[in-house]
Design goal:
By secondary structure, the protein is α/β, with parallel strands linked by helices. It has two domains: 3-121 and 200-301, Malonyl-Coenzyme A Acyl Carrier Protein, domain 2 (3-Layer(aba) Sandwich), CATH 3.40.366.10; 126-190, Alpha-Beta Plaits. It is built from twelve helices and eight strands. The chain has helices at 26-37, 41-47, 56-78, 90-98, 103-121, 136-147, 170-178, 206-214, 239-246, 253-264, 277-285, 297-301, and strands at residues 3-7, 83-86, 126-132, 153-160, 163-169, 187-190, 268-272, 290-294. The strands form two sheets. Strands 2-1-7-8 form a four-stranded parallel beta sheet, sandwiched between helices. A four-stranded antiparallel beta sheet has the order 4-5-3-6. The longest helix has 23 residues, at 56-78.
């Protein structure tokens, strides 16, 4: 069976996630994690509440580590996938599982990425909203029309055939929330995030991420990985540039789905990690395909 592994980004976390993995993945979740980042993931798993794990510096390494271990379990159970992808942060999970990065090196980059992105949005008075639409082309046209006026909206994520995520000043986001028809949308849902990620607001984070990426070894991956930056398959020559530019450019997850469908025509798409968000994106984009959610060892066995 030809299958695709998909890994979630920030927002998929929940308190206590991954506790079942501690016994079999102690080296990764305890020893390597603490050696690399200097704090205990076990304490977070056992004691942190949902509010605590919303913090970017905790959420991103936590989600990555848990998704990576579920990825290892899935590959052990199902064999290697035809390709891997990830949504924003989840791209690091895909790259590490493929072998482009060592696990500890990926943690180093993620720690810097999370800290710098958080610093960039602090006191920025910006946010993000999900836009649900039945006519994506019209919505994109209307956003361009607004941008030619006094309302500036940036497209942070192209998620699927009926959803994008936009960023902007909170006042401008409030305007489109109250007036969804202004961008041809059915509904606009504010997201609980610290600011306008994947927009020019976080461009200042790129230099620090580039510096740490230049300090780590990148190897040839053994599993193809498609990237958020251009929706295409990455390689050792383009990977650094893609990850640096992913920070302040749109996440082209919808393009990745369509390109993989065209290139590989897989039988099965698997969301691997907390939550189930990427499964929904595939379902709305290519509804004819089989989709599986693996967010626990029990779900892997089913």
């Amino acid at each position: 069976m030809k299958w695709i592994g998909m890994h979630p980004g920030q927002g998929s976390q929940e308190a206590g996630m991954g506790k079942e993995l501690l016994e079999n993945h102690k080296e990764l979740l305890v020893d390597s994690f603490e050696d690399t980042l200097g704090w205990s993931l076990v304490d977070v798993i056992n004691n942190a509440d949902n509010e605590e794990i919303k913090k970017t510096n905790i959420a991103q390494p936590y989600i990555f580590a848990i998704s990576y271990c579920y990825g290892l379990e899935t590959i052990k159970n199902m064999g290697e996938p035809a390709a891997l992808i990830g949504h924003s942060l989840g791209e690091y999970t895909a790259l590490a599982l493929s072998g482009y990065f060592k696990y500890a090196d990926a943690l180093k980059v993620i720690a810097v990425r999370g800290e710098e992105m958080q610093k960039a949005v602090e006191n920025s008075n910006t946010g993000m909203s999900a836009v649900l639409t039945s006519d994506l082309k019209k919505t994109l046209e209307e956003i361009n029309n607004l941008n030619s006026q006094d309302i500036e909206i940036w497209i942070s994520n192209y998620n699927d055939a009926s959803q994008i995520v936009v960023s902007g000043n909170k006042d401008d986001l409030e305007y489109i929330k109250l007036n969804p028809k202004s961008i041809g949308a059915k509904r606009i849902v504010p997201l609980e995030v610290a600011g306008a990620f994947h927009s020019k607001v976080v461009s200042s984070a790129k230099a620090a991420v580039e510096e740490v990426l230049n300090d780590i070894e990148i190897n040839e991956g053994k599993i193809p990985v498609y990237t958020n930056f251009d929706g295409k398959q990455t390689n050792t020559g383009t990977i650094r540039n893609s990850l640096i530019n992913q920070i302040d450019n749109s996440v082209l997850f919808y393009d990745e789905i369509l390109n993989i469908e065209k290139d590989l025509n897989p039988d099965l798409w698997c969301h691997i990690g907390p939550g189930n968000v990427t499964a929904g994106m595939v379902r709305k984009s290519i509804s004819s395909k089989e989709i599986k959610v693996i967010n626990s060892l029990e779900s892997l066995a089913s």
